[in-house]
Amino acid sequence: MSFAHLGLAEPLVRAIEAKGYTQPTPIQRDSIPQLLEGRDLLGIAQTGTGKTAAFVLPSIQRLVAAQKRVLPTHCRMLVLAPTRELASQIADSARGYGQFSRMSVATVFGGVSINKNRQDLSRGVDILVATPGRLIDLVEQGLCNLSMVEILVLDEADQMMDLGFIHALRKIVRMVPRKRQTLFFSATMPAAIRELAGQFLTDPATVSIKPAATTAERVDQQVTFVNQSEKQALLTILLGDASIDRALVFTRTKHGADRVVKLLAGNGIAANAIHGNKSQPQRERALGLFKSGQVPILVATDIAARGIDVSGVSHVFNFELPNVPEQYVHRIGRTARAGASGQAISFCADDEKPYLRDIERTTRQKVPVTPLPEDFMRQAEAIKHARVKAIGADPAPREDRPRQQRGPARPRATHAPTATNGRNYANASPGGRGGAGGGQRGGNRGRGRGGQRSGGASAGR
Ligand SMILES: Nc1ncnc2c1ncn2[C@@H]1O[C@H](COP(=O)(O)OP(=O)(O)OP(=O)(O)O)[C@@H](O)[C@H]1O
Ligand SMILES: [Mg+2]
After folding, report:
1. CA-to-CA distance for 461 and 459, rounded, in angstroms?
2. Fewer Cβ atoms within 10 A, N terminus or C terminus of the chain?
3. Nearest to 18 by CA among 45, 53, 44, 43
4. How many CB atoms lie within 10 A of CB 376?
């Protein structure tokens, strides 16, 4: 099966060839023909399987065929995404797929000056990719008009219908024409939210390559039970694994992400953080240095869980498990994309076990348990000792745990898991690539650090 067989026109096929794709992925194969016919569609497919091209390619073809001229401040296709980074990435993809189809593409999201948005929109654009908050600001100021929208796309649709966005979404939907094509895509779709989708879609086709919340195929998942206070040492040891190309480390809170960066620095490991309290230039810089491999460890909140496509992410660490089980699917989906394989290693403290159960229920699978490395306590002590020597004192204990979960101090001893899959961390040692007190990581890895303090913009704007 080729892209031309799906009914795509020559300029699009040429752009796909330029990307190096040889055949459509299942979600592309099953949704593109229906989308070319103009149907509404709910598309569910695993992370990293090409949903972006599945909605962008047929939409460009329809926009070209309709031959309408866009008016100043208007757009013809509106793509909504939950974060700025994802909006920017979708726009880049649309530019690539539309490079021989004369499509104009613009983005609007917070953290960028309104004046820049005004300029970008002044002549009108074919494809506008936006986060909801800033889009509404622009419409309310008369700088953007949605009355010419022919195609509305919700990427990460379940998140866009979730509590944080539903109010803004309803507002936006009231601004676009009733007669339009509407496309929803995600790797997850909780049943309650799927029902909501019916309010926005008209007689939709449903394409579900695998049941919602199926994890990416080639991601090797493991969980290790470890006390919260020893997670840092475990991360330091595991980052010494020579097979790590790029590692994304997820925490639940912004403060938690900053703390991990600081503690890693104390152990001579350079990393950047990306979260909603960073300024837009800081966010772009952190992601850029991660993509280029100059600072190959990025510590993130769930701001980076969805949609972000960075090739070469070999490892995802859940330093803290997400309390929303679908987020696990998205987080670990930052690795093992486009046919590659990857590792997802989750750290689970006692009080996170209910989250693990939710994740296993949602993904319909058990996560194999890997025990702590042999001699872990001794290594952990050495790492802590080296850090104290390097920075003078150990940082304050974490205070970001939800109030109800702060209980009496947990026992210090790490517990051995009851069942294991026979694996262990034999190859990892603190003397490897990371290393307690071992100075900066090799090569140019130290370059990206520093200057990352406050900022002030939220994900949805
Ligand atoms: N037909 C194809 N052949 C090879 N690579 C492809 C194909 N289609 C898309 N890709 C590549 O696969 C990667 C993942 O695509 P994309 O970001 O669209 O995945 P996704 O399904 O949206 O994932 P997520 O659920 O994480 O958002 C991209 O790097 C893209 O260039
Ligand atoms: Mg995507």
Report:
1. 6
2. N
3. 53
4. 18
**Distance (Å, whole) CA 456 – CA 458:** 7
Give the amino acid at 246: R
In whole angstroms, give the CA distance from residue 177 to residue 162. Answer: 23
Give 34's contacts (C-beta < 8 A, 6+ positions apart): 41, 205, 207
Interval 223-264: pLDDT, tens: 999 999 999 999 999 999 888 999 999 999 999 999 999 999
Contact predicate 168/99, CB 8 Å: no
- Would you state the torsion angle of the CA atoms of residues 70, 72, 76, 80, taken in this order, to the nearest 10 degrees? 160
Best of 1, 12, 25, 55 for a ligand 1 pocket test (most atoms within 8 Å of beta carbon): 25
Encode pLDDT of 172-227 as tens digits: 999 999 999 999 999 999 999 999 999 999 999 999 999 999 999 999 999 999 99
Atom of ligand 1 nearest to the CA of 330: 26
Whether residue 234 contacts residue 75, with contact meaning beta carbons closer than 8 Å, is answered with no
Cα-based distances in Å from 124 to 84, 108, 109, 357: 20, 13, 16, 48
Does ligand 1 come within 6 angstroms of the Cβ of 47? yes
- Cβ of 445 closer than 6 Å to ligand 1, yes or no, is no
User: Is residue 110 within 8 Å of 281, Cβ to Cβ?
Assistant: no
The residue among 207, 259, 233, 226 whose CA lies nearest residue 410 is 226
Nearest to 91 by CA among 108, 74, 75: 108
Q: Tell me which residue has tokens 């895509």.
A: 185
Mutate to test the pocket of ligand 1, among 52, 55, 56, 326 (most ligand atoms within 8 A of CB): 52
H or E stretch covering 342: strand 342-348
